UniProtKB/TrEMBL annotation:
Keyword Manganese: no
Listed InterPro entries: Pur-cyt_permease (IPR001248), Pur-cyt_permease_Fcy2/21/22 (IPR026030)
Keyword RNA-binding set for record: no
Family label: Belongs to the purine-cytosine permease (2.A.39) family.
Species for this entry: Streptomyces tanashiensis
Transmembrane domains' residue ranges: 46-70, 76-101, 122-146, 158-177, 184-204, 220-238, 259-281, 301-321, 342-363, 369-390, 418-438, 444-467
Official protein name in the record: Cytosine permease
Pfam families: Transp_cyt_pur
Lineage of origin: Bacteria, Bacillati, Actinomycetota, Actinomycetes, Kitasatosporales
Source domain of life: Bacteria
Gene3D superfamilies per UniProt: Hydantoin permease
Compartments, record wording: Membrane
Length: 476
């Protein structure tokens, strides 16, 4: 006769899921998050995106717009328009709670199980690691200056130690994962906001609010600059096709409007402010070397704090990048734990940074290559956003986790031809219109105006609407 005594230990094990909390290394990788483990509120996303967008590169980009030949207020207009693309980042974030999965898995619905591995290898892992290296190099430069101010000569061994320490701090956040990111990023946002308030007061005291270049740009050349500047600003939000990674723990019932709003607002507000500060500063100092130029107008006592803030801001953005890169590596098909994949990504990024800063101009080459990435990131964002709208955000997280040939997301030979063709065609159309490292025939015919961003996104989205309805209906 079978025992009727209840096994309370087994029951407790069954109903008590792993807890997603700051002091515990996150257990989940690309696997599905069950409803029983969902928690939090969309407003938590504000500080996640705010902390990542109060950073050194935003200052550099804002200053670059004025250096390109725009007037101050033309530059500010470009900054506002380019940052409106954060709304798309917010839209993509809504798919996280719907599926209980990260973006790296959800995009199997767009490209198929095998096709999505290629997408994650190139559009996910490779781009993320390159961005990690570039941001790490920027943080290291500020940290080298901080070390010099402490009376330590920044020779090669010291530089190596500095780079490794910054990377270690970054990877620690990424390894512990989601809960630590949510916990840390609110105080980081407040600390960075305080530091950049001092920067803002100094910059606004010296800025020339009526600044226009000595020889104002007009006509086709002006339009070319405006479009190029908007594309440069938009490359930030368009690079985050991974926003579902940070929203997937939210309850399935979380408000979609709130998710879009808090994500977009958290990124838009600080990015507009910091980029604009860079533009304002460019009317007063030489922003070809922002770090040293800004020190000329900052209070002497505040310079070390400013340098530390630059490092902290870069750690914030890189922790998100490394977190997503780790998930991308898992989604490529490597059967390794998320913690291992994050550490591997960090090791590669550190190697690239050391090589670029200490051996050659490799990072310059990578930086130039990333200017062309918008040719890829625009169509990637467009296809993903279009799928969310066509599918009305109905994603089956369990089915998406199935990588077998019997999966509904296997499609034909593991590839969703509708998504793959829409993406490839969108990228090709964008490439014809680009004017970055090369000039495409369309850009050449238009006098240098680069329409790669709107054309690539429009073609990719339009073609996916035409070709993807059947696949969406079959799997939605």
């Amino acid at each position: 006769m079978a025992s009727t005594i209840p096994d309370h230990g087994a029951a407790r094990a069954e109903v008590t899921p792993p807890v997603d909390r700051p002091g515990r290394i996150e257990a989940h990788g690309i696997d599905h998050i069950p409803d029983s483990e969902r928690h939090g509120h969309p407003r938590e996303l504000f500080s996640v995106w705010a902390a990542a967008n109060v950073n050194y590169l935003s200052l550099v980009i804002g200053g670059a717009l004025v250096l390109m030949g725009l007037s101050l207020w033309q530059a500010v207009g470009v900054i506002v328009v380019g940052n409106l693309f954060w709304v798309l980042t917010g839209l993509l974030a809504t798919s996280g709670p719907a599926a209980g999965a990260p973006s790296e898995v959800i995009t199997r619905a767009l490209y198929g199980v095998i096709g999505n591995r290629v997408n994650n290898a190139i559009g996910g892992w490779l781009v993320s690691v390159c961005y990690f290296a570039l941001n790490l190099a920027a943080a290291a430069t500020a940290a080298f200056a901080l070390v010099e101010k402490a009376g330590i000569t920044a020779n090669v061994p010291v530089k190596v130690v500095v780079i490794v320490v910054i990377a270690a701090l970054t990877l620690a956040i990424s390894v512990y994962g989601h809960a630590l990111i949510i916990k840390l990023y609110l105080p980081i946002t407040l600390a960075l906001a305080g530091a950049f308030t001092v920067v803002a007061l100094a910059v606004l005291r010296h800025a020339d609010f009526s600044y226009t270049p000595g020889e104002p740009v007009t006509g086709v050349q002006l339009w070319a600059l405006l479009v190029a500047g908007t594309t440069m600003i938009a490359s930030g939000p368009l690079s985050y096709t991974t926003s579902a990674d940070f929203s997937r723990y939210l309850p399935r019932t979380a408000s979609k409007k709130a998710i879009i709003g808090w994500t977009a607002l958290g990124a838009f507000v600080p990015s507009v402010i910091v980029c604009s500060l860079g533009a304002f500063a460019a009317t007063a100092v030489d922003m070809t070397d922002p770090q040293n130029a800004l020190q000329e107008i900052l209070p002497g006592w505040f310079v070390p704090v400013f340098l530390l803030a630059l490092v902290l801001g870069t750690i914030s953005i890189n922790a998100l990048t490394a977190y997503s890169a780790g998930l991308a590596l898992q989604a490529v098909g490597l059967r390794i734990r998320r913690t291992v994949s994050v550490l591997f990504d960090g090791a590669v990024a550190v190697a690239l940074t050391l090589y670029g800063l200490l051996v050659s101009n490799f990072l310059d080459t990578v930086s130039n290559a990333l200017q062309v990435i918008v040719v890829l990131s625009g169509p990637l964002m467009a296809v993903y956003a279009t799928d969310i709208l066509l599918r009305r955000n109905r994603y089956d997280g369990g089915a998406l986790s199935d990588e077998s040939p019997g999966s509904p997301f296997w499609f034909t030979g593991g590839v969703n031809r509708a998504g793959a063709l829409a993406l490839i065609t969108g990228v090709a159309a964008a490439a014809l219109c680009a004017n970055t490292l090369y000039t495409g025939p369309v850009a050449s015919a238009l006098g240098g105006v680069d329409l790669s961003l709107p054309v690539g996104m429009a073609v990719a989205s339009g073609l996916y609407v035409l070709l993807g309805r059947r696949s969406v209906a079959a799997t939605g």
